[in-house]
Amino acid sequence: MALADSARGLPNGGGVRSPSGGPLLTPSQSLDGGAGRRSGYITIGYRGSYTIGREAQADAKFRRVARITVCGKTALAKEVFGETLNESRDPDRPPERYTARYYLKFNFLEQAFDRLSEAGFRMAACSSTGTCAFASEQGGPADDKIWTSYTEYVFCRD
Q1: Is position 6 within any domain?
Q2: Where is this region: Disordered (predicted)?
C-alpha cells in the first residue's frame, strides 16, 4: 500500500499538482529523492544601457552586456554553468550555501538560457527596472538621453 502524500512529506497533502500532473514540490525536495538532480532556483541578472539621440532617432546606441550575474545555491550554479562560472568574488563558498556574487565568463543571455534549459530549468519570473538621464549631465550631447536598466530572470527546476 502506498504512503499518503502527507506522510511522504509532500506539501498540501499532495492535493496540489504541478502543471505536468506530478506532485507540487518545494525547492528543497527532489523528484528522485535526492539521488540525482537537485531542485531549486537560479536568478540571472544584468545591467544594460543605451543612448537615444535627438527626438528618438532610429540610431539608438546599445552597449553590450558587461556582466551576467548568477544568484542561487552554489552547487546548482556549478552544476549548470561549470567552468563558465566565475567564482573569483566568492571562491570558498560551501555547496549548500547561497551566493549572489558569481558571474558568467560569457556575455550572451541566450547562452545562459540554453544552459539552464538543458539542465531542466524553466523561467518562473522576470523583472526589469530602468532610469533615464540627460547625456549633458554625463558629458555627452545636450539632447541625448542615456537609459540604464537592470533585469533579472528567475529560473526554477522542480
Answers
A1: no
A2: 1-36
- Per-residue pLDDT tens over the stretch 13-29: 445 544 444 444 444 44
The widest CA-to-CA distance across the chain, in whole angstroms, is: 76
Give the domain extent around 151.
40-135+144-157
pLDDT tens digits, residue range 133-149?
876 666 666 667 788 89
Distance, CA of 22 to CA of 18 (rounded, Å): 5
In a domain, 103, yes or no: yes
Q: What is the DSSP string of 36-102?
A: SPPPEEEEEEEEEEEEE-GGG-S--EEPPP--EEEEEEHHHHHHHHGGGEE-TTSTT--TTSEEEEE
Quote the DSSP letter at residue 112.
H
Contact between 140 and 50 (Cβ < 8 Å):
no
pLDDT per residue over 41-95, tens digit each?
Answer: 999 999 988 777 665 556 666 666 789 999 999 999 999 999 999 998 888 889 8
Cell 536598466 appears where?
149
For the chain, the domain total comes to: 1
In a domain, 64, yes or no: yes
Kindly state the cell numbers that stand for 101: 556574487
